[in-house]
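Entry:
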Amino acid sequence: MGTIMVGKLAYIDCSAGVSASMLLAALLDAGLDTDKLKRILFSVPQFDVYRLKWQRFRSPVATGTMMEAQPNRREEGLSVPEWHFALEESSTLPTVVVTKVLATLQCIEDASRATRGAVPSVQFSALDMAEICAVLLGFHLLHIQDIYCSELPILSTTSPVTIEIGRNANLYWRASERDVSNTTCNEIGVALLATLAHYGNPIMRIERAGHGYVEFFHPHFTEDKFGVAHLYVGYEPGTQAHKNDSDQVVVIETNIDNMSGELLGALMERLLAAGALDVTYTPIQMKKDRPATMVTVICPPKLSETLSLILLRETSTLGVRTQLMTRLIAQREQVQIETALGPTLVKVKRVRGEFISASPEYEECQRLAQENGIPLIEVYEIVRDAIRKSDVSQNVQ
């Protein structure tokens, strides 16, 4: 029987800055399943130029992981719409990861236009995209749902675009007293934080830690060439991995009667990428019998203002309604079982410790269908049959 995986809390210490390589190395050091990461990541054909290689690294501070440098290739990049098409058409990346990838690219493009004026669409290379996807996929595979980060260092080399990305995401900055030889803060790293995290100092029970190093090459420095980002993963005090519990959420609602379906679709992606737990659209009728849509957003209380402002700024609504609600949460676990098509993850539901049900995971079934060249509906039946024959209801505690 496989390992139980539930939603976790994470804190990223960015006192030495942040980059995609540092975050990915920290994830690997924290125990990310590299085989699964590679299998899903390299389903994108464009990523064949990327080689996921890393090594153990020991510093006076902590032993960690350092990503090996990738070849400095000058290659043609793709725009955000082109990458959207490539990721949707040719990969097995989970939809939620693709949404966050596109949000990361978009915040870089928005900041570039805000600081540089009317510039052509930003092009992203396959190497950059592979690291962006690897980081976002890594947090998804570790089932990390709530991510905090420290303040970021402002350096003489920090670009205006990088500052604008952090400003738009309400990240915090501080003047850096560190030598630039062991500190970095680049656009992609800050954009990943803007998509994933929010500033804060959580109180948490640490389950594991990952230290992600990156090596700097600067002609004027011969020592202290290694920067590091620290990743701490765990749970809030009083929570347990095997306990169903209640929590509080904010429900945000607004009625819209003059936006197209395309704009509403983009709005849903934007809200989910910003941290909404759920977004739903309900057909309604407003005054004078006009057809309209009620937008309902469920989110953690700390994101209520951020998501409400997105609705006010990016839709035609003139106001939103918010209410704090308590919800009872069933325990949800992912467990690996053996099937006729190989090992796969299934979702197990429990209430107050009592087994309720187990069901196939869509993304896992889609993977098995593509690997074996059979219809998805047939895979579902095979997995359901394996669930019935397994002892999943007895062995998950």
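The chain has three domains: 8-235, 245-329, 331-395.
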